[in-house]
């Protein structure tokens, strides 16, 4: 056996006893071409805002198909409406009646948080879902006012205009703020700026929502205790001072009795719904039952004559257009834009937190089932 090295084997070792094999072919890696700054910027811009290539469905399509795809992208009802049937309608009808029973008392309360007439809460509860049914793409999202935004809107508006002394200006400023809140959210969607939400601190958002929940609960003490003269501030010290200062002459025991009774009823119905899935309908209709029974009870006992506050008159029909009441000039325009932008961002933050909470609940359910 010859002691000569194999021609493919390099006798040089790697520091040990084994020789290093070398390949007869060598490949050189070329220097990448220098990128144009404009092309680099456009690539980064596309990856940030259009990473999903939203126009990919329109490529190599005839004009008629492009028109239909464009119509479906703006009005998704033309897409899912073709597969709609009676079975889905029955389920949607049941869900709609259930949600409506909850929205009636809930949105009246939201209107009171914003210092507006109850009718505006009712208008905002059924007009947005009708629009979203044609233009929305999610089947599970909830459309309408929420407590946090209503309270924030009422606080910011009241800091500019007193709703008691200038109700007309307050209402017009509310229309202006809500209009620009919608413009803000529409602009964020059109320019695809949803990625900005990724930079929000989850701890900060949770802290904000927790603080908002405490603030809302404290604000409900005014109606729960029947206090007429209440502080306009929202901090805990001012609210508690206003509550206890009215303890001797400002509390209404009839209001407290009615509120405590139906609060117990709602909590009990919620507990029953959690215990038995077959009785899910009980907590769903409990708010509407509370409204009906409490209205009947106040009517037959004339409790409104004893200081129990009622909703009073609601205008019939659909609210006329309020576009002409929006401030497009004057010193209230800047205030309306500022309040609207803040309200729109808070609403977007809250919806993001709800989405993350829903994903977390789904993960917990999956983990528990495994």
TrEMBL record:
Query: Mind telling me which residue stretches traverse the membrane in this protein?
Result: 141-159, 171-193, 199-218, 253-272, 279-300
Which GO molecular function, any one, fits this protein according to its record? Answer: secondary active sulfate transmembrane transporter activity
Subcellular compartments: Membrane
Tell me the PROSITE patterns matching this sequence: SLC26A (PS01130)
Major localisation: membrane
Q: Which UniProt keywords apply?
A: Membrane, Transmembrane, Transmembrane helix
Q: Where is this region: Disordered?
A: 1-29
Q: Which InterPro entries match?
A: S04_transporter_CS, SLC26A/SulP_dom, SLC26A/SulP_fam
Q: Has keyword Transmembrane helix?
A: yes
Protein name, entry field: SLC26A/SulP transporter domain-containing protein
- Which species is this UniProt entry from? Brassica oleracea var. oleracea
